[in-house]
């Protein structure tokens, strides 16, 4: 593969960006006076900033690169990760769940679990989340450095160290506020850096019509019907008819319900941004505001991948191909940047890629230092210390969180399998979580024992299902079948993941109900006020407000728009 | 707000815009072969400049309002 060479202007743009992210941290450092300021921005963030940060924290480099890769590999079906796998859950968390998260004054998602259920449920969630965030930021650091090495010939160690130090400095100085402000800056940079790629690429293809034509060649070459890369729903009646290898029910239930709600509604990485909002109304509008640009992101991150594969197949080998003939889809977005961007714009595009990486990493680090300090350190290691002490711990946790991420990035270079295994374990832990929150928020009879053992059983069910099934063309091992027998073969890895999630969620849901019925309630109705739907007074503060500011109307509009998008690209 | 976020955003994109416009005016036209012959640095630089200065204007207006009221 041809390497991209950068000019002086490109480095200059990158350096200006570094100056600004560090400058924002520097400007905000004097506002950090208490642990509340450091971990929660003193609950002072306006809705639009919290909303864009909510989106940006999730928009790591892995998403930009991964969604581009999926766009090339599966075509427009990748948009299901947005229009089915994100928007409904974002509307749900804003309208139905935020009143309890924000209203309970919990400082983190695990802390909500302690208030609602008990200490052991919180501990389980806090520890698994803390470990997970550190490793996922390490893995994305590894992925980015590897990519920069491949595309630009940059030194792997230099990329890791420089990006880690910059993120460390700006969070250390300004805490969550600094992370959030920078995420908004990064959001605009990602949009404005990738938009010209889409515009030039589409112009080159002869618009959507031209792209559709070329992609029909891609589809028929791969043995699918002509529209497989450009229709999102049309080919989902059977897994054999589409490149993703999934059928609509598994996709809607597994991705659209379990995985998506599990992530957007319970992952502290995103929920933290809404918790930092300056009012209940702002907290509820945070995910709804985020949903609007999120809906349009497929155009920004999936289209470049689709253009890349169209060029690759019809224009002759643009993407790097491995010795065994498989295409390296992860290179789709970087290759597109080098293909269309001249020096100048290239610097902007690469800076946008760096920005996406930093926003994702900062999201992980701020979520980690909060959960570590409040839910692990303050709860189990050193309770009853002064606020100053916890603020100091937050700073330390930021340093250690980043050092651990760097260590994880290096571990990934040596033991690829361990990383894959960890990601698998995290998937098992996460899959059932939404059942616990759903029952916790909407069923007052759910007990602490029910929640804890429901979660454990759900996690085990996920592991068991994964261990007893195998996707097509996979060997027994990490991909499945490790329990000893293969009871079912899935047409694709994705189908297997979706069904693992469905099994885990259902097991957790049923087990939590069953165990709650036979165990005594550990919280009285009074304890649960503000934590459970039926025991919380209805919010009245939205009455008399213009319709476009009300969460419910905003949510309905967002959902309606998502339906329209699904229909257009059906 | 502790710091009007529109200020750094506006400033950064104004700088990026100016850099791209200047580079677009000065650089050899041959580099635009890959971008379909269009001087994208100039045009996108102008777009960034427009975005950045709008942000700066919004921040400036908010400051004026705060100062007077």
Task: Report on the architecture of this protein.
Chain A has 570 residues and is mainly α. Helices cover 72% and strands 1% of the residues of chain A. Chain B has helices at residues 6-26, 40-68. The model of chain B has no long low-confidence stretch (mean pLDDT 91). By secondary structure, chain B is mainly alpha-helical. The A-B interface holds A 9, 12-13, 16-17, 20, 23-24, 27-28, 31, 44, 46, 49, 177, 181, 184-185, 188-189, 192, 196, 200, 203-204, 339-345, 348 and B 1-3, 5, 8-9, 11-13, 15-16, 19-20, 23-24, 27, 31-32, 34-36, 38, 40-41, 44-45, 47-48, 51.
Give the oligomer, counting copies of the same chain as homo and different chains as hetero: heterodimer
Distance between the termini of chain B: 16 Å
SSE arrangement of chain B, N to C: HH
Terminal-residue CA separation of chain A: 35 Å
Helix percent of chain B reads: over 70%
Order of strands, widest sheet of chain A: 1-2
Helix content of chain A: over 70%
